[in-house]
């Protein structure tokens, strides 16, 4: 399957993408994680991306699209993929369409995760991420690690993302509404959007997502 995951910052895209990718046996491709990996390796791309990310703004399309294209062309993505955080505006969606068209392939669904603003703000404020593996995500109240600051899965250090400060979160939410939400209309016109609530326990949301993908609504 080829799926795009969309939803406001903190809705649980990364959390659900990890689970869905495992169940559906497709790679989880997160442009946010790819940028963060570049930042920690101190590449030129990482240096460029960091200034935009820290301010809560989108990284320019040109570099984002090239990075996403390169990742989607890796052999493990041949049979399908789950895109998390890409596309993030209509021009990225158009670029993705073009790319898929050249390959003669199509998206199967756009999974839209809905969560109210006060909930996503709480989720982001308490989020802690593992330095060793970005798939290891915790929350100080909702899914606390056994030992404060230490990843249960691998013992790595847990940290708070630089862009999770209150001020940056406000910008990210605004950017989501003005730039990313329009892609839902874009994909609705193609009949691809399935919307589910991202509220409730993580496992229930995963079940809801799998059901929705199966039934297409
Ligand atoms: P990105 O990394 O994509 O961040 P985001 O979209 O803002 O989303 P988040 O990672 O904040 O949240 P999430 O929905 O994945 O939530 P999570 O599962 O962690 O992008 C970061 C930046 O990179 C952008 O601002 C931009 O600068 C740049 N960028 C990335 N892609 C780009 C693109 N295509 N173009 C241009 N720029 C781009 O969950 C959040 C918390 O809630 C966790 O603590 C989790 O444990 C908890 N939680 C999850 N589910 C539940 C639940 N059901 N109940 C209770 N708690 C839950
Ligand atoms: Zn870890």
UniProtKB/TrEMBL annotation:
<feature type="binding site">
    <location>
        <position position="36"/>
    </location>
    <ligand>
        <name>AMP</name>
    </ligand>
</feature>
<comment type="similarity">
    <text>Belongs to the adenylate kinase family.</text>
</comment>
<dbReference type="InterPro" id="IPR007862">
    <property type="entry name" value="Adenylate_kinase_lid-dom"/>
</dbReference>
<feature type="binding site">
    <location>
        <position position="31"/>
    </location>
    <ligand>
        <name>AMP</name>
    </ligand>
</feature>
<feature type="binding site">
    <location>
        <position position="127"/>
    </location>
    <ligand>
        <name>ATP</name>
    </ligand>
</feature>
<comment type="function">
    <text>Catalyzes the reversible transfer of the terminal phosphate group between ATP and AMP. Plays an important role in cellular energy homeostasis and in adenine nucleotide metabolism.</text>
</comment>
<keyword id="KW-0963">Cytoplasm</keyword>
<dbReference type="InterPro" id="IPR000850">
    <property type="entry name" value="Adenylat/UMP-CMP_kin"/>
</dbReference>
<feature type="binding site">
    <location>
        <begin position="137"/>
        <end position="138"/>
    </location>
    <ligand>
        <name>ATP</name>
    </ligand>
</feature>
<feature type="binding site">
    <location>
        <position position="172"/>
    </location>
    <ligand>
        <name>AMP</name>
    </ligand>
</feature>
<keyword id="KW-0808">Transferase</keyword>
<comment type="subunit">
    <text>Monomer.</text>
</comment>
<feature type="binding site">
    <location>
        <begin position="10"/>
        <end position="15"/>
    </location>
    <ligand>
        <name>ATP</name>
    </ligand>
</feature>
<dbReference type="InterPro" id="IPR008144">
    <property type="entry name" value="Guanylate_kin-like_dom"/>
</dbReference>
<keyword id="KW-0067">ATP-binding</keyword>
<dbReference type="Pfam" id="PF00406">
    <property type="entry name" value="ADK"/>
</dbReference>
<protein>
    <recommendedName>
        <fullName>Adenylate kinase</fullName>
        <ecNumber>2.7.4.3</ecNumber>
    </recommendedName>
</protein>
<feature type="region of interest" description="NMP">
    <location>
        <begin position="30"/>
        <end position="59"/>
    </location>
</feature>
<feature type="binding site">
    <location>
        <position position="92"/>
    </location>
    <ligand>
        <name>AMP</name>
    </ligand>
</feature>
<dbReference type="Pfam" id="PF05191">
    <property type="entry name" value="ADK_lid"/>
</dbReference>
<keyword id="KW-0547">Nucleotide-binding</keyword>
<dbReference type="InterPro" id="IPR027417">
    <property type="entry name" value="P-loop_NTPase"/>
</dbReference>
<dbReference type="InterPro" id="IPR006259">
    <property type="entry name" value="Adenyl_kin_sub"/>
</dbReference>
<keyword id="KW-0418">Kinase</keyword>
<dbReference type="InterPro" id="IPR033690">
    <property type="entry name" value="Adenylat_kinase_CS"/>
</dbReference>
<keyword id="KW-0545">Nucleotide biosynthesis</keyword>
<comment type="pathway">
    <text>Purine metabolism; AMP biosynthesis via salvage pathway; AMP from ADP: step 1/1.</text>
</comment>
<feature type="binding site">
    <location>
        <begin position="85"/>
        <end position="88"/>
    </location>
    <ligand>
        <name>AMP</name>
    </ligand>
</feature>
<feature type="binding site">
    <location>
        <position position="200"/>
    </location>
    <ligand>
        <name>ATP</name>
    </ligand>
</feature>
<dbReference type="GO" id="GO:0004017">
    <property type="term" value="F:AMP kinase activity"/>
</dbReference>
<feature type="domain" description="Guanylate kinase-like">
    <location>
        <begin position="1"/>
        <end position="214"/>
    </location>
</feature>
<feature type="binding site">
    <location>
        <begin position="57"/>
        <end position="59"/>
    </location>
    <ligand>
        <name>AMP</name>
    </ligand>
</feature>
<feature type="binding site">
    <location>
        <position position="161"/>
    </location>
    <ligand>
        <name>AMP</name>
    </ligand>
</feature>
